């Protein structure tokens, strides 16, 4: 009896090991697929949009957004993710610029993560009836940002405008421990965001019918 139980336990352990190995293979394959989605250049540097949206949290993003605004590539700049209490004047001083003519063309938000970035930008865009935006964030952050923004604003035209931090080595990223860790962390966050949206769609499909529908007897 004990021998049979040990045999079953070994078979179960073997099957679980196969499942774990398969999951690891799929995860690694997905990681490299995700890395291929990280842009290596700005594909559309000149199309004008209603707004430029900068997601704060990394180097060079805000400066690039102000540069694009000053070049006339949009009517307004929205900076999402600014700490509460920071106004436009302080924002301009942070990047050591003080162009008074740009001050009235900048809005700021207080989101604390990428999903909130998309939500507060959607509210800001709707209030102005804007239909297109140029999204400025780090290249490694762009796939997840586009996922969240497309979910929040499916009818809005999005033009990605990645910036490339000097400390992120995109070529042979797996050979650089810092960049490798960054890419893995961003990939895991991307998977969580994708899973959240997928689960939301499933719940929408399988959820209860309209309220007030007569119950079947």
Q: Give the strand content.
A: 5-15%
CATH class of the domain at 51-165 and 176-187 reads: Alpha Beta
Which architecture of the domain at 51-165 and 176-187 per CATH?
3-Layer(aba) Sandwich
N-to-C CA distance? 52 Å
Low-confidence stretches: 212-217
Structural class: alpha/beta
DSSP, total strands: 5
Any idea what the shape is? elongated
Q: State the major sheet.
A: 5 strands, parallel
Cα-atom radius of gyration: 23 Å
Strand order of the largest sheet: 3-2-1-4-5
CATH topology assignment of the domain at 51-165 and 176-187: Rossmann fold
Supply the number of helical segments. Answer: 7
Helix content: 40-55%
The CATH superfamily of the domain at 51-165 and 176-187 is identified as: HUPs
Characterization of the model:
The protein has 217 residues and is an alpha/beta fold. The chain has a domain at 51-165 and 176-187: HUPs (Rossmann fold, 3-Layer(aba) Sandwich), CATH 3.40.50.620. The chain is built from seven helices and five strands; from the N terminus they run αβαβααβαβαβα. The chain has helices at residues 2-37, 61-70, 88-94, 100-103, 114-128, 142-152, 177-206, and strands at 51-55, 76-80, 106-108, 132-138, 157-163.
